[in-house]
């Protein structure tokens, strides 16, 4: 049994275009309504649980948890040499130390920040493979130069001919879009219900 292919929608005149936009509007209304109701229901649940937590002892539990973790870390650091392995297995959990990700940091007594460290590194004969030089086209600056020139006569324009020399051009393509009033209508209806 073969599946029949659905015929593509073809719009031939303004009346059909009006009907298509009307249907998109109806679809948009329904989908936006669902989204708004979902968001409302989720917020109700969050508010309910936030109130329960605030009334309950969650803040005290969080504080106690942090205190216990700090005390366990202190204990583990002091007793680590007595462990038979890299971790200490307990009935309800395990204490262990894991290596974190390696990171490059400055030695404050030599270089107070990375700019100072970079200047020192550049001066060293073996530093070349450890210095990154990124050269890339600053597209934002190209676009901004056009905006500045349009707004401020006498600004420094970047002409199309100059961009062409570099093999570049600025384009602004049109993109088709259908806008219905569904989202706005749903919002207005919800606001009216609240009042």
Automatic annotation (TrEMBL):
GO MF annotation terms: double-stranded DNA binding
Name of the protein this chain belongs to: Host-nuclease inhibitor protein Gam
GO terms classed as biological process: DNA protection
Species of origin: Candidatus Nitronauta litoralis
Superkingdom, natural source: Bacteria
Pfam families (UniProt xref): Phage_Mu_Gam
């Amino acid at each position: 049994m073969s599946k029949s292919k659905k015929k593509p929608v073809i719009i031939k005149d303004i009346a059909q275009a009006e009907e298509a936009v009307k249907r998109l509007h109806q679809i948009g209304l329904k989908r936006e309504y669902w989204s708004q109701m979902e968001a409302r229901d989720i917020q109700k649940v969050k508010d309910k649980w936030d109130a329960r937590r605030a009334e309950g002892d969650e803040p005290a539990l969080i504080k106690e948890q942090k205190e216990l973790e700090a005390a366990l870390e202190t204990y583990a650091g002091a007793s680590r040499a007595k462990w038979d392995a890299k971790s200490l297995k307990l009935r309800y959990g395990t204490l262990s130390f894991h290596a974190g990700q390696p990171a490059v940091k400055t030695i404050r007594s030599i270089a107070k920040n990375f700019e100072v460290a970079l200047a020192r590194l550049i001066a060293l004969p073996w530093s070349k493979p450890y210095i990154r030089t990124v050269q890339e086209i600053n597209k934002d600056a190209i676009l901004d130069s056009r905006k500045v020139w349009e707004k401020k006569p006498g600004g420094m324009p970047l002409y199309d001919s100059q961009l062409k020399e570099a093999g570049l051009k600025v384009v602004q393509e049109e993109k088709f879009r259908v806008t219905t009033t569904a989202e706005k209508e749903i919002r207005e209806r919800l606001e009216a219900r609240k009042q």
